[in-house]
Write a structure and sequence with these properties.
Layout lengths: L4 H17 L6 H4 L3 E2 L2 E2 L2 H15 L6 E5 L16 E6 L2 H10 L6 E5 L2 H7 L8 E5 L7 H14 L5 E8 L4 H4 L23 H10 L2 E6 L11 E8 L4
Parallel strand pairs: 3-4, 3-6, 4-5, 6-7
Antiparallel strand pairs: 1-2, 7-9, 8-9
Helix pairs in contact: 5-6
């Protein structure tokens, strides 16, 4: 039986707190495990990620971005010049410590150490946000938290127009990363596994649909290091009526 939602968040936070301590203070991509075979990915790969997010979220100067599971803020800060404000939330206190040291510019660009599921329920001014980003982290949310976050964004964050959820492991392409591994392996549904929960495109689309969102799924260009087994999702609000 998998751990509870609160236990998963706590375990992941503790894991990253330890992981950050194993890396130099400015090894930002290493700190958030954005690497291939133990080495941080090249800047050209980061540019592909940033470009995909910019295109999907279609920033306007008055946008306020909410970055959920933001890590150390290295990705968040890429969008400061495109919007009027950004708040990053992450369960790891050490990652947020790095974010506030190197990337915060309060009050408009700030970071808080919080469990994402708890934060979305408790945010005092959810209406201020217009765009939401969650990159490379959604698969590590407990299934209950994943559903709660999407439902709460739809219900409470009334001015959010677009949500970009990036780098999701594709269960239909499990073999491209784990040759010979079966989709029925219990590890593919464990948020504490190496890559978290794998979902087919149909499964993710159904989750979005049941929580108030319409999903458009895309795959990164072939030269992206994870294009062969991951996809991205852009969520927009379902048409009323």
């Amino acid at each position: 039986m998998h751990a509870s939602a609160s236990a998963v968040a706590r375990i992941i936070g503790d894991s990253y707190n330890h992981h950050v301590s194993q890396h130099p203070p400015t090894d930002f991509w290493g700190q958030v495990k954005r690497h291939v075979f133990g080495r941080p990915i090249a800047d050209a790969q980061i540019r592909l990620i940033v470009g995909a997010i910019e295109e999907a979220l279609a920033f306007r100067p008055d946008d306020v971005l909410l970055d959920l599971a933001c890590g150390n803020g290295a990705l968040s800060q890429e969008f400061y010049e495109l919007c009027s404000g950004c708040l990053g939330i992450d369960v790891s206190e050490e990652l947020i410590r790095v974010a506030n040291r190197y990337f915060a510019a309060p009050p408009d660009y700030d970071f808080q150490p919080r469990d994402v599921a708890a934060y979305v329920q408790e945010e005092a001014r959810p209406e201020r946000f217009t765009k939401v980003l969650c990159y490379g982290s959604f698969s590590y949310f407990h299934p209950d938290s994943a559903r709660l976050v999407l439902e709460t964004l739809a219900r409470r964050f009334t001015n959010v127009e677009r949500v970009f959820i990036g780098n999701l492991p594709d269960l239909d392409r499990l073999h491209a990363f784990y040759p010979g591994r079966s989709a029925t392996d219990p590890g593919v549904t464990d948020p504490l596994a190496e890559l978290g929960i794998w979902r087919t495109a149909e499964e993710f689309t159904a989750l979005a649909d049941s929580t108030g969102w319409s999903a458009r799924l895309t795959v990164m260009p072939p030269d992206f290091y994870a294009a062969h087994y991951r996809y991205d999702a852009l969520l927009t609000r379902q048409a009323s009526g």
